[in-house]
Design brief:
The complex is a heterodimer of chains A (219) and B (586). Chain A is an alpha+beta fold. In chain A, 48% of the residues lie in helices and 21% in strands. Chain A has five helices and seven strands, in the order αααααβββββββ. Chain A has a four-stranded antiparallel sheet, with no helix packed on it. In chain A, a hairpin with a 2-residue loop joins β1 and β2. In chain A, α1 packs parallel to α4. Chain A is elongated and about 85 Å long. With 586 residues, chain B is mostly helical. Helix content of chain B is 62%, strand content 3%. Chain B is built from 22 helices and five strands. Chain B has a five-stranded mixed sheet, with helices on both faces. In chain B, β1, α18 and β2 form a beta-alpha-beta unit. The radius of gyration of chain B is 25 Å and the shape is globular. The two termini of chain B are 46 Å apart. The C terminus of chain B is likely disordered. The chains are: A alpha+beta (219), B mainly alpha (586).
Chain lengths: 219, 586
Amino acid sequence: VTGVLTTVEAVIGLAVLGYGSALLYRVFSRVHTRREIHLDPWIATALTVVCGLMSSSLMLGAVGLADQPAAYDGMFTVVTIGLAVLAEAGPFHRGDGSEPRPHAEVRLRMLTPALLPLLIAAVALGIGWRSDNARSRPVTALAATRTAAGIEITVTRGSGDHQPLTVLVLAGGRQIWQSGTLPATGTANLVAGGADAQSGTVSVQLVSGTRVVRTVSTG
Amino acid sequence: LLAVAAACVVARGGHPGIAPALFWAGLLAQFVPAAARLLNPAVARCERMQVSLLLGVGLLLAHQMAELWQFNQFDELLHLRTLHDIQATGRLFTPHPLLPVSPRFPGLELVTNSLVQLTHAPDQVAGLVVLVVARVLLVSGIFLLTERVTRSSYAGGIGVVIYTCSPQFFFFNAQFAYQTLAIAFAVLLLVMVGRRRAGGPAAATLMIATGVALTLTHHVTSWEIVLTLAVCAAVAGFRGDRPSRRHLTASTLVGLAIVGAWLLASGPMLGNYLGPVLRDAVDQLTGIATGGGGARKVSTDSAGGRTPLWEQAFILLSLLIWAATLLPLRPLRARPDPEGNRAALYRVLRFMHIAYPVTLLATVAPQAAEMTVRLSTLMFIGISTVIGYATAAYLWPRPLPVRRMTLAVGVVAFVGGTMLGSGPGWNRLPGPYLVGADGRAIDGYAINAARFASTDLPPGSRFAADRETGDLLAATGQQWVVTGIGSGVNTGPIYFATTIGTGERALLRQGHIDYIVVDSRMADGPPHETYYTENGEAPEGTRLTREELGKFDRTPGCVRVYDNGPIRIYNVRALQAGPTTSAGRP
């Protein structure tokens, strides 16, 4: 349900932003406005949208609502309605989008040469993202903390780390607990209980055979 | 873009020889055809604008290719922290542990946050969209400014080509940092000021909105623009152009009011941030002038890595090209004949052009060099307009071979400028871990340690950490990293001590430090970015040893709670005398 609501909200947000920008473009395309601001309408639109996004977060942040998506949806909807009223009034420049658009076939023919570079750019960005995403892969890690239930141990398996791993818990140099062989992937959450684990310094080791791979302790 | 993507993949695989070749091939595959098209006088204005935008956005994406999954440059992570604070609290001005002024200039983060809230896009995607929009605004602004002042769209296109050669264009002004958005606002403000006559309410509203947005985004850029407007007004007055003087003075006063009001609100914080930077720069320059200080070694980084000779040659040649544009040669003497505000603006832009080579003299001192390179962002606006017009006027009637020669000079300027602005070669491409090397020090181990801190440790715990891991912990781990600038305690000396003694315990106590992060790889060599942690950690050049980093395992009361191999996190609350900060923490 949350996912559906989020998607619906995102679609509404995008629609409001897109429609609002189109209306702004119409306003800036008006003959006298265009002459006055002396900027191409699309540049003025982009600039105003950025300023609008900034001011909305600023205003909502001032009242502690900068983290509320619904507040943004509401605010931008009101602004868009206002723009719709404003955009209907007054004469427009010929280049405001009201002139007849080229036939669909002509538009497609104009668009085709742009598709290949866009596709190549998308592939390049995909490769770049995938390459950078490799940094997020998990590395073999061990963490432990003492709680009322005992020693809570978290073992994260590194990407591509397939060695057999077990966890040992030692108190005063003496082994007081040992896990079974850990799963080959993912994160394992273990609890080492027992009276010996409840006080004093306890050392937790992640071992592969006889080799200690990682060590943590609880004070 | 494909070549740059391949360069990133190859560089991550540890093939330093092939990756730079692919990288430069990728950049030149964008620059050369675009510049050739823009140098062609027969191209229509619409196409010039399109090619300019393609060039600008293409180079931005090429820079971002190395960090598409997550921003990882030092400054970017600082701003990511501010963004996350806004999203976590719903409020503005939340204290920042590493860059206290950042929440006071949250323009970039506000725009990104609005996009995230409206579209539910991930922060990274929203940040990239904002960067692309900022780049589109910047490039169209440079194009329009040159076009309006010189009344030539041909000069506008060449102006864009020149601006892409500026040292900051490819690297610094493509980062998720406040200057990237601010410079776009700044250029568009100059375009709006450069109208022939004063506008009506719509123009005034748009100008004021842009001025406010600029002020909220970046301190220094907003001051630079107000200063530019003031000088324009003075020039108009000097020329006896009363309508322009009135208009420009009014613009200056409005700008001064906006910037002044915000300055009053954040003055002490800015003083604490910028004061030491200015003081260091002046001290270093004075030291060099009097023979008492060491000049900056342009060809080496702080870890002793040498810039290859061919790169040094390109950098030197690019600087010589810009210096040569000051010579009274015939091709460079062409001047447009602007009227009104544009006449005053053009003269100020010419001043920027003349001043740039002079500011380069300051690059002998490290701190002044950083300021100079950052100043080039503004200076190149002047160079783009002035040299853009002179080049256009010279090339208009010339045959193809002359345009090709000009393009060759442009390629040298572009490669040299990009090298100068992006610093050492290791900074341009991803690759294996390097000590204290900005994004190159943020690898899977650091990311996983920050992830652990974010999920398993209480948010806002106070950390001592090295420069890069600390930055990441603050940005994505939501922890408070204790530093001199943010908390008044420099934790660096703790790392350099051989034991945790009285002095180290006092620092832990003063900083109320809960955890210490130790990356054992710091003992592998000197840091590439001057410091392991922050300025003042130890005498410059002092290296960390394994024994110093190993003391945390030998000190009773120092509890290792996380270990991923190179990076370990220790709970050090027990080392602070007095009561611990909270019970029940791991």
